[in-house]
Amino acid sequence: MLLDKRYTSWIMKITCFATMGMVSSYFFYSCDQSATTDQIKTETKTSINVMIEPLDTVYFGFITRYNPRIMYEEYQPIMDYLSRETPYLFEIKLGKTYQDAVNYLENDIIQIASFGAVTYVEAHSKYGAIPILKPLNSEGEPNYRSLIVVRKDSDILNLKDLKNRTFAFASVHSTSGNLVPRYTLAGVGLTLENLSDYKNLKHHDSVAKAVLSGEYDAGAMKDIVAYKYLEKGLRILDISDAVPSVPFVIKSDLDSTIVKYITKALLKIDVNVPEYQTLVSNWNPEFRYGFTETQDADYQIVRDMLNAIPGSCGNTCHPGLFFK
Length: 324
What we know:
Layout: H1 8-16, E1 18-19, E2 22-23, H2 25-31, H3 37-51, E3 56-62, H4 68-85, E4 88-94, H5 98-106, E5 112-114, H6 117-127, E6 130-135, E7 143-144, E8 146-151, E9 166-169, H7 175-187, E10 197-200, H8 204-212, E11 218-222, H9 223-229, E12 234-239, E13 243-244, E14 248-250, H10 256-267, H11 274-279, E15 291-293, H12 300-307
Parallel strand pairs: 3-4, 3-5, 9-10, 9-11
Antiparallel strand pairs: 1-2, 5-14, 6-14, 6-15, 7-13, 8-11, 8-12
Helix pairs in contact: 1-3, 5-6
């Protein structure tokens, strides 16, 4: 059972009085000859009650970038670290869609979430969500890229070759898997109507697999996903400009003490120190290189892209929305 660090001394005290897992007034008395019977009963009862007092739980949500198995494998170590470094117990809470995570934060089902840039802007517009931290990449920069990929044996050699071909996007709420690639295509004069077929798939990995299988001629996804599939048969067709990295987001009314503990624990991670290199080795690659503070203004570039719809990326991207 996980216990608050504040109660460690009580645990040690109880251990002194326990043999074969039993706590008795006899052993308590042997440790403190001056204790009266009433004192023994009272202190033993109080100590046991303190031992079983539960930790406050902080629920951490994530948008559905990957399938649930991968998300639990790669995000749980982050929860374990935060549980060790703070007085709280952190647990993952997943929904079935990107929008579930946005709604969970709004309705206090979760207290903090890892959103994409688009989902953050949506949440900020809807209920004033606030970004507090964002991860660094392997170069120590707080950004990432959107990649368009094809099979290695594909005859598609440049973006214009995608005309009248099929294309797989990630979720319609994805920044790197939907918004950015539609702008990229618009930059060479291609709209959704110029594709022979297209579809928004649920996960970035699903896009990679759909291209590998030949179900779609090309697809778009986050850089860290694309790179792991290159050796399996994908080829990079295009790399986008830098996109601000995915923020950790809270509501404005979250207890400031929780926020301080989270930021302190994550900001002290320094991957140049061997201790921290070991710590983050089994974390999701997006969160292995440390964190930096962030603010709403960092995501203005994404807000501007969304506000330019439908002029740039097609009227089925995020229709009817205006973001301030």
